[in-house]
């Protein structure tokens, strides 16, 4: 059975992906800080591994036996990116799905782009951009995912833009991002070497709807 390592498994999107994958023949290693927070639903398919993505040692230990790494991380994102790349290379794992954010290429046009900078500049956007370039320069088989502003609606509705294209829309559900990640884990040839903007169709505007 194919094995995926989920980094940041207590994250909101990650938990949706985990639930989706339970319906498939996939083994999941769930890597998180403070593992007491997560309950396993199917012990034949899921393991908890406590660890910190700022620790190369923890990551290398966790990667043994995995074919795919899905990183749903936050925080010290540049250090985490470097460690994930180094651990994957040390373990000979090629396939990485990396959750990033909109705006890392200054690809968000118009007033929304300006607003997004106002909200995210000053440490977040810059470090997420640097982390993404670590991934892009890694030589790994990566897919970077750049979600619009996230909400917790259950609706799955999304469209994609590619690196070099202007970002579309303002918002997207975590359930939509989880759907995309699940599809890639099930078919790892999808979106190889791509950096994908992901938005809900017809949500163009100056801000996500809940800010209006
Ligand atoms: N909010 C938005 O509108 C928006 C839009 C675009 C992109 N994003 C980005 O999308 C990503 C995923 O979103 P989400 O909603 O799933 O985020 P989330 O719930 O905050 O999940 C991120 C996870 O990263 C884990 N993490 C942070 N540092 C770690 C470390 N050193 N070692 C291990 N795990 C670590 C956190 O662990 P703990 O549970 O231990 O803290 C958390 O569970 C985030 O990077 C977020 O910034 C957000």
UniProtKB/TrEMBL annotation:
InterPro entries, sorted: NAD(P)-bd_dom, NAD(P)-bd_dom_sf
Boundaries of every NAD(P)-binding domain copy: 8-188
A Pfam family hit: NAD_binding_10
SUPFAM superfamilies: NAD(P)-binding Rossmann-fold domains
Protein's name according to its UniProt entry: NAD(P)H-binding protein
Organism of provenance: Enterococcus xiangfangensis
Organism lineage: Bacteria, Bacillati, Bacillota, Bacilli, Lactobacillales
